[in-house]
Write a structure and sequence with these properties.
The chain is α+β, with helices and mostly antiparallel strands. Helix content is about 30%, strand content about 35%. It has one domain: 2-Layer Sandwich (TATA-Binding Protein), CATH 3.30.310. Strands 1-2-3-4-5 form a five-stranded mixed β-sheet, covered by helices on one side. The two termini are about 25 Å apart. The relative contact order is 0.16.
Length: about 110
């Protein structure tokens, strides 16, 4: 299996496992969004809580130029560390929610 396909599977596995443990109700659901053509992957909450609209991302990943970009992580899990444990080199992981300046001080790729 080529690297890009393996990275897609890793990202989808992380998002799917979080969707399974997500606290959902009859009116608020965890929604998985996998755009394999453009390499955008997201877990979001969608629904209603009484009269209040619930919509927002929980996690968002992109695969850009052969690297996994963590664009948003609204969980307490270090998904970058989990990716390393799955076999992704730290240089192929970019913490996209940090500025380029700040990324240089992380053990991960700079993008």
């Amino acid at each position: 299996m080529d690297k890009l396909e393996q990275y897609r599977q890793f990202v989808q596995q992380i998002l799917s496992s979080h969707a399974e443990i997500a606290t959902t109700t009859d009116t608020v659901k965890a929604e998985l969004i996998f755009d394999r053509q453009h390499d955008h992957y997201q877990l979001a909450y969608v629904g209603w809580q009484g009269d209040k609209r619930v919509f927002g991302p929980v996690m968002h990943f992109d695969i850009i130029d052969g690297k996994i970009w963590i664009q948003y992580n609204g969980t307490e899990e270090s998904v970058a560390q989990r990716l390393v444990e799955m076999g992704v080199p730290s240089s192929d992981i970019v913490i996209g929610f940090h500025s380029a300046f700040k990324r240089q001080f992380t053990p991960y790729g700079n993008g």
